[in-house]
Amino acid sequence: MTNINAKDSLLTHINVFRVAVQHQRHLVDILVHSTEYSVRSIPGFVSASLHQSLDGTSVTLYSKWHKEQLRQTSESDFLACFAAALDIATLETTVSESVKHFEPLWPGLQVLSDPLRQLSGRRLN
């Protein structure tokens, strides 16, 4: 797992795919394959994590990239990797740099509370 550090030279690329509930599992399969065999071969790739929403309406691909190499990669390179996914989902994407990393006050305590579970899949803005 890649550590998040506000002072590193990495960028975070977040892709949120919106999908019908009945297609989420298929979308996950497509993204696992495209990340395994295409995304990982793009210069500058560091790591990726794939997340599926609890409500079944989205899948998020969170990836870390070396800044300079990501800037040289065209958007069409990424879209080519996701062509099959875009047949069944829409895509929202953003590239960000880390500002601050937070860890739990009590490292052994990592419980997802009911209010946080209820927020899953909802937009907060």
Shape designation: flat
Q: Tell me the name of the CATH class of the domain at 10-95.
A: Alpha Beta
Hey, roughly how much beta strand do the residues contain?
Answer: 25-35%
Determine the CATH topology of the domain at 10-95: Alpha-Beta Plaits
Give the termini distance in whole angstroms. Answer: 29 Å
Radius of gyration: 16 Å
How would a crystallographer describe the biggest sheet?
4 strands, antiparallel
Q: What is the overall pLDDT average?
A: 83
- Please state the structural category: alpha+beta
> How many beta-strand elements?
4
Instruction: Work out the helix count.
Output: 4
Organism: Bowmanella denitrificans
InterPro entries: ABM_dom (IPR007138), Dimeric_a/b-barrel (IPR011008)
Protein name: ABM domain-containing protein
Domain ABM: 12-67
Describe the protein in words.
The longest helix has 14 residues, at 24-37. Strands 2-3-1-4 form a 4-stranded antiparallel sheet. The protein has helices spanning 24-37, 67-71, 75-81, 114-119; strands spanning 10-19, 45-52, 58-66, 89-96. A hairpin with a 5-residue loop joins β2 (45-52) and β3. It is built from 4 helices and 4 strands, in the order βαββααβα. The chain has a domain at 10-95: Alpha-Beta Plaits (2-Layer Sandwich). It has 125 residues and is an alpha+beta fold. It is flat and about 40 Å long. The model has no long low-confidence stretch (mean pLDDT 83).
